[in-house]
Amino acid sequence: MRKIKLLLLTALLVFSAQLTYAQDSTYLSNEYAKAVALYNRAQRYNDAAVSRQALMEMALLNPGDTAVLRSLAEIYFGNGQYVSSALVSMDLIKIHPNNLVALEIAAVSYENLRLYDKAIEQYESMWLTTDNTTILYQVAYLQYMTDKYDAAISNLGILDSRVKADETINLAKQDGNVQEVKFAAALQNLRGLIASDQGDKAKAREHFTKALEISPDFEAAQNSLQGLNN
After folding, report:
1. Bridge-partner residues for 172, per DSSP?
2. Report field, pTM of the whole predicted structure over 0.85
3. pLDDT band at 27 (very low <50, low <70, confident <90, very high)
């Protein structure tokens, strides 16, 4: 008789646990639906703050929802909240390591925060996924910025074999605008910057001059050469 009572008690405990789980599941589902409705209404009313709040609630209720994480990262990034956009992007990368949107947001966020080593890691992951020469150039440039000259020169060598003669790249000017120059000129300018940092002014001048021969209006190369003359 005691054994039967124990069996009945065990069955009741199992049923109670299942009921609690079902109730929790229903509660979470309802709360998620409310968060989605809040987000949709906030989007309709163009309320960025409430949109972000709703996305945060959805992310808490379902941490594996990558679409929510992506939207949250994009909102933070668009508002210049680079610490937040980097952290959210890294959470997304943990779920999908090759997600290009997350990698790019993380890379640019870290770059804006001047955490160049972390930015390089994300750009390198993008390069391995896309084989995009512009991304590898950015890796090489940040390696120059962090005094990793050997690594930068090695990547410039890879770019030499990949970049076509007529290929161009968009680079920032001093006034914040973008200038399109021949990719080969950009590689020469970066080699010149590395040589200048290493104290070889003659070699630097040679690279800057070559860069201007390829793209005569290349502002960065003009400034680099002028810097040597001053």
Report:
1. 178
2. no
3. low
